[in-house]
Amino acid sequence: MRYLINMSYDGSKFYGYQVQKNNKTVEGEIEKVLSKILDTNINTIGSSRTDKGVHAINQYCHFDYDKNINIKKLTHSMNSLLDDSIYIKKIKKVDDNFHARYNVINKEYIYKINIGEYNPIEKDYVLQYNKGIDKTLLNEFIRLMSGKHNFKSFTSDKDNKEFERDIIIDYKISNNILYLRFYSSGFLRYMIRNIVGLLLDINDGKKSLSDIEFIFNSKNRCSAGSCASGCGLYLNKVEY
Question: Is 51 considered catalytic here?
Answer without folding.
Answer: yes
